[in-house]
Amino acid sequence: MEKILYLAHTDSNGQLPRIALEVLSAAQKLSKDLAGSTLMAGLIGGDVKSAADQIAGSGAVKIFGVSGADFNESRYATDAKAAEALAKAAGATIVIAPGTSRFARALPGLAFRLKGSIDTHVSGIAVNGAQLDIQRWYYRQRMVATLTRAARPWVLLVDSGAFPACAGAKGSANVEAVAVTLTDADKRTKVTGVQAPSADAQTIRPDAELLFVAGAGWTKKQSDGQIHGKDAEKIILDFLKTSKASLGSSKSLVDLGAEGEAVLSFISHLNQVGQTGATPRHPKGLATCCHGEEPHVVGWRFISERRAINTDANCGWAQGKADVLYVADAFAVMRKVNELLAKA
Ligand SMILES: Cc1cc2nc3c(=O)[nH]c(=O)nc-3n(C[C@H](O)[C@H](O)[C@H](O)COP(=O)(O)OP(=O)(O)OC[C@H]3O[C@@H](n4cnc5c(N)ncnc54)[C@H](O)[C@@H]3O)c2cc1C
Asked: What integer pLDDT is reported at residue 199 of this predicted model?
């Protein structure tokens, strides 16, 4: 009989981040489908009480917690120790946890300490009789594999966007405190501050409804023989501000900056979508001034509804890669869209 431990850490507000609530619904599904299994929760953070209250109605039979100032920040040594203590307290055979950067660093160490196995970037789970199968993508999301393991404990780090966020009832939870003894060496790494762009400058928004992709065409000579970089910047920023879309980019646009050419100032390599970039998950996508070549479009694997604006009716998007292609000048279309959004 499997003992499932849902493991999560709090965010800077002491709450569970969205991805943790997504993984909670995966854990609930797993526990429902695996006959005779038990679901428990383990929380790590400065103070885990309000996170525990968030999941009070989750169906977890016990909520264990490791808390205290030393567990407030992300740090490999303390996180791995806390996770180990929680997994042992629960006697877990399966640990299912959100694939945050904090856990991506610490949980491979947990699997090692437990003499178990770990799989990262899990994007699907299915129970086949008494067997647990997981899914993950390989080769830049070109191939999906279904696999299982006999090894226990089995640690699963789940990607965001693969499960709906659990909207379970909140309540007042009972947290069973688990003690962890730390040495000075465990606390050697100190978080001295966080450097993050201001909310407006933050253009990558994983939770956005829409992915807006800007391609190199925005910086190319237009029909009047001129480049309109400043106009492009204003149009795109105005659109992002009102739509709250996430900003993606093609490789060509990102590379122009590296080559010292005029490029949109707010785009960096982090925005790049594609084979050598990111594979974001959003319900909708709109590509503008982007040709839609395969190495770029492979990054659209998890974009459900796809639209593109291109002056070229024979661009890649027209070759079955988009649901709708607007053969039009993206400057004109997006100006009009911004005008309509401003009135809305
Ligand atoms: C190994 C390898 C890995 C790669 N990895 C990636 C990757 O991860 N991501 C990625 O994006 N690319 C990747 N590429 C590059 C990819 O093949 C393309 O070169 C790149 O995506 C092209 O970018 P683009 O469409 O923005 O630019 P371009 O090909 O220059 O296209 C610009 C488009 O803008 C259109 N346009 C111009 N003006 C307007 C206007 N006013 N209105 C509407 N449309 C307009 C043009 O018609 C044109 O189609 C990779 C290539 C290789 C070889």
From this structure: 59
- Range(s) of the domain holding residue 336: 210-343
Bridge partners, residue 307, by sequence: 286, 324
Q: Do the domain assignments include residue 100?
A: yes
Structure tokens at 146: 């279904």
Which residue is closest in CA terms to ligand 1's atom 16? Answer: 295
Contact of 311 with 327, CB cutoff 8 Å? yes
Using CB atoms within 10 Å of the CB of residue 271, give its burial: 0 to 12 exposed, 13 to 18 middle, 19+ buried. buried
| 57-81 mean pLDDT | 97
For residue 262, pLDDT beyond 80? no
Same domain, 17 and 85: yes
Do 84 and 221 have their domain in common? no
CATH code for the domain in which residue 25 is found:
3.40.50.620
Indicate the pTM of the whole model. 0.80
Mutate which of 273, 296, 335 for ligand 1 pocket (most atoms within 8 A of beta carbon) = 296
Give the pLDDT mean for 240-260.
89
pLDDT at 341: 95
